[in-house]
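Customer escalation, tier 2.

The customer says the design service returned an amino acid string that "doesn't look like it belongs to this structure." They asked us to rerun it and document both sides in this ticket. The original structure tokens are below, unchanged.
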């Protein structure tokens, strides 16, 4: 490692090609960076060799781990540095540093001099650094330093949102070398070429190519600008050439029509056919000075307030998902392959639409949508509220221009959006003069952005997404501004009943009959570890999530005026502000944050796919448990999702039953054996058999503990809960509680803990339980029980008791995104202590809030118990102050 001045450099040699091989060279410089978390008093004068620098590669975020911790995540300044070597032959060219994204304020320095500053964390930006460089590839280093700041700033959206504001240079960085004559790189970091499709039909299509060309040279030049359209096989379809004279040091615009493309091959979700437009700048001798290739998808579309969305003259219900860009353990610094995989995951679900929420994402996302045939809405991150300042307005307008310029040529885009739930957290006292003025300013900003957007691109629609307060948005005039209104609706989750969803849609259609409608968010939390055969609101079970989506999908499909919908969300994502029972995570995805599909994903496949489909539901619930019957079997329902007429089920190689498919679901009551169960679902279509196999490790719990056919092994039990919990890593199946009965096991006395004065869940706590990753186990409890008894045969056992004090005298951090938002004050803690006895031996004295039972913190203790003389295990509780509690119990036979 060599030291140069105040920097420690790792050489990154930039390979280069002759000017004739490639006029503009664009290549990543992602390797061999160094990172320092924190600021310097004076970076360029202060000696920082001794500072703590970490060797990293891009993409990078400094929030990969702290966003899952309960101590807060870092929002502040980070520095990056790197050395590049630039060849002498590049001198005189236009040299740019191009950043796909860094969050959220970025300053770039080259050789100690400021190259530029960018505000906003989700759009690309670039700086001309040619005059700041030293040119000599073999020996002269160029010092690149980048300061990034993700601190909260009232003048930069987003101000507040249900996602995490990760910091860092989290997308790719490029070094670009262009000839003095090149496509404009300074127009909001767009490609310098816009492809427009003013006329597209079944019989012909007209194309317009608008090029912005820069001449940084000192002399006037004559050039030829040519544009050609090639089909997917590379055949020439149309070509045009334009002669132009470029003044020195100027930028010129060239417009080229390519009209009369006969019988165009149209782009659609079923057939995402892409032409390409090749645009070149050549000198008078025919030498190519610059060239760019743009995708071209020929399609036309419209939104109708009465009958929905139309693509290429045919009605098409848009069904898809929202998507955030992070991945577990990576923050938002994810490689292109994950972005592309997510789009394939969406396509494989049968979806045809994505709402890219709540900000522009990596370029690979829209590139994949173009290839796969996924229609898209994209927006800037004005979320929940605004700031009434000229700086905030200017930043919003800049973001909108950048978003449009950088993504204009993607045929998948049909909507430019610019606000999400902007009146969810309004400033000032309700209905005060200040708040009414605030609403006016929000509408004014919306009007400016809408006008800007229509001016930049009149061919696409504009949209604002609103939370479910119809009167607030309508009274503020918001519903009159964009061409489409999106509604984020959560009836059956945040709002109490499913029926309200359909009523809300009908109200919009009646009161805003000329305004096209999208459902831009709907969903509920689903923890892939939690299951219930009696799902209820707020239980976060996979079964409730599936039931929720069944209702919503039917309601939207039954209403032709609903142009489309985007479920919330494609995948689970990090949201640090959430401190409920799934801390720092929004689990409303139809797949996990590691991209494992949940049951509801398969339900959508059954509804949306056109090819034959059959899939076993709860296939990820591979560690199950339940109480056995007299045959030592446990019967539980299994759903199979299919778009075929009937499904046959075999169990462990033997035919079990055949059931008709109703509303894309066939239900079987399956008698599981203890151990491995192989379940196979089959359905026929057109003489072919389609099947799916799931392997389930079922732990049958003997109803009577002296059962010699099915001897006792272990018991994992949630107290105060009706749900099942699966721990795949430890291979443990947790079951809901039951009362004691002779010969068996269970609790004696007490009642289920339930929060008071809340309209939320009817059992347990929705708070973040500290000290554990298994919050659902500790978040429920039985209160005031006198004992827990197991009539076990003699032997040696391990008994683990699990506790968490769910009451507290402190107030929880209140957030509109948490399930406790309506009731931020925790349950009052009056104090408790109790003794615990096992087989009449005191094992815990005065266990309570003065020692181990601290509010909202997990505590467990394990005992080894010898059972002799047929006594079984008898756990008893003696109250000293308040009432005893027990959240969970594990009993395991050693021998």
């Amino acid at each position: 490692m060599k030291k140069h001045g105040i920097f420690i450099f790792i050489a990154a040699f930039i390979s280069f090609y002759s000017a004739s091989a490639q006029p503009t060279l664009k290549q990543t410089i992602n390797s061999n960076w160094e990172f320092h978390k924190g600021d310097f008093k004076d970076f360029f004068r202060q000696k920082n060799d001794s500072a703590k620098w970490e060797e990293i590669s891009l993409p990078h975020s400094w929030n990969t781990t702290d966003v899952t911790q309960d101590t807060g995540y870092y929002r502040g300044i980070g520095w990056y540095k790197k050395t590049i070597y630039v060849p002498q032959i590049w001198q005189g060219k236009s040299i740019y540093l191009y950043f796909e994204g860094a969050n959220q304020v970025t300053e770039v320095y080259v050789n100690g001099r400021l190259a530029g500053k960018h505000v906003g964390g989700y759009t690309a930006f670039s700086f001309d650094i040619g005059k700041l460089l030293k040119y000599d590839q073999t020996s002269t280093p160029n010092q690149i330093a980048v300061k990034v700041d993700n601190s909260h700033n009232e003048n930069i959206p987003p101000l507040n949102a249900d996602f995490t504001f990760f910091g860092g240079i989290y997308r790719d960085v490029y070094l670009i070398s262009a000839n003095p004559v090149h496509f404009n790189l300074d127009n909001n970091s767009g490609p310098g070429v816009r492809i427009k499709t003013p006329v597209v039909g079944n019989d012909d299509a007209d194309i317009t190519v608008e090029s912005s060309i820069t001449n940084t040279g000192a002399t006037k030049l004559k050039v030829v600008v040519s544009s050609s359209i090639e089909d997917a096989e590379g055949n020439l379809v149309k070509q045009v050439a334009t002669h132009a004279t470029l003044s020195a040091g100027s930028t010129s615009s060239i417009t080229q029509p390519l009209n009369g493309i006969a019988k165009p091959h149209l782009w659609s979700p079923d057939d995402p056919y892409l032409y390409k437009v090749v645009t070149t700048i050549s000198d008078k001798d025919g030498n190519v000075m610059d060239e760019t290739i743009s995708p071209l998808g020929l399609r036309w579309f419209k939104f109708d307030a009465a009958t929905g969305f139309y693509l290429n003259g045919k009605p098409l219900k848009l069904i898809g998902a929202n998507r955030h860009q992070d991945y577990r353990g990576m923050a938002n610094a994810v490689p292109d392959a994950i972005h592309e995989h997510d789009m394939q995951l969406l396509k494989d679900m049968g979806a045809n639409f994505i709402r890219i929420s709540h900000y522009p994402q990596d370029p690979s996302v829209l590139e994949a949508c173009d290839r796969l045939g996924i229609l898209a809405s994209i927006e800037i991150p004005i979320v929940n509220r605004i700031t009434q300042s000229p700086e905030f307005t200017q930043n919003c307008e800049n973001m909108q221009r950048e978003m449009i310029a950088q993504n204009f040529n993607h045929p998948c885009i049909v909507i430019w959006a610019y606000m999400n739930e902007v009146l969810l957290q309004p400033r000032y006292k309700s209905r005060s003069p200040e708040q009414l003025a605030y609403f006016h300013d929000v509408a004014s900003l919306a009007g400016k952005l809408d006008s800007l957007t229509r001016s930049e691109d009149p061919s696409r629609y504009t949209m604002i997404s609103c939370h479910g307060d119809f009167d607030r948005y309508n009274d503020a005039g918001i519903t009159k501004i964009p061409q489409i209104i999106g509604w984020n609706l959560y009836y059956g989750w945040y709002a109490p009943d499913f029926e309200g969803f359909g009523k809300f849609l009908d109200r919009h259609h009646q009161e805003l009959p000329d305004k096209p409608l999208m459902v831009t968010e709907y969903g509920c939390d689903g923890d892939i570890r939690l299951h219930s055969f009696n799902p209820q609101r707020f239980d976060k079970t996979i079964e409730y999530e599936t039931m929720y989506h069944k209702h919503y999908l039917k309601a939207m499909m039954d209403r032709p005026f609903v142009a489309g919908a985007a479920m919330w969300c494609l995948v689970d994502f990090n949201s640090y502000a959430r401190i409920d029972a799934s801390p720092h995570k929004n689990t409303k995805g139809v797949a996990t944050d590691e991209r494992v599909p949940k049951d509801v994903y398969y339900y959508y496949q059954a509804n949306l796919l056109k090819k034959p489909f059959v899939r076993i539901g709860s296939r990820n619930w591979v560690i199950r448990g339940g109480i056995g019957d007299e045959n030592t079997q446990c019967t539980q329902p299994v759903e199979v999702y299919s778009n075929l007429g009937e499904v046959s089920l075999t169990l462990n190689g033997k035919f079990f039953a055949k059931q008709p498919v109703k509303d894309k679901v066939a239900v079987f009551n399956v008698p599981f054996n203890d151990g491995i169960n192989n379940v196979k679902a089959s359905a026929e279509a057109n003489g072919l058999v389609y099947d799916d196999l799931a392997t389930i490790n079922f732990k049958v719990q003997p109803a009577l503990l002296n059962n010699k056919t099915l001897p006792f092994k272990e018991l994992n039990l949630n107290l105060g809960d009706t749900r099942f919990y699966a721990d795949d890593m430890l291979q443990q199946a947790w079951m809901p509680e039951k009362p004691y009965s002779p010969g068996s096991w269970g609790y004696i006395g007490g009642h289920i803990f339930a929060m008071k004065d809340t309209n939320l869940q009817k059992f347990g706590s929705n708070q973040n339980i500290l000290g554990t990753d298994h919050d659902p186990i500790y978040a429920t409890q039985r209160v005031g029980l006198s004992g827990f008894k197991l009539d076990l045969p003699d032997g040696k056992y391990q008994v683990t008791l699990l506790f968490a004090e769910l009451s507290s005298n402190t107030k929880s951090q209140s957030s509109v995104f948490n399930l406790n938002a309506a009731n931020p004050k925790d349950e009052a803690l009056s104090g408790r202590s109790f003794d615990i006895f096992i087989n009449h031996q005191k094992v815990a004295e005065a266990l309570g809030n003065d020692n181990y039972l601290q509010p909202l913190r997990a505590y467990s203790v394990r005992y080894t118990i010898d059972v002799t003389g047929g006594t079984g295990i008898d756990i008893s509780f003696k109250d000293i102050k308040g009432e005893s509690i027990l959240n969970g119990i594990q009993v395991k036979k050693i021998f």
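Tier 2 assessment: The sequence is consistent with the input. The mean pLDDT is 93. The radius of gyration is 31 Å. Sent an explanation to the customer and offered a walkthrough call.
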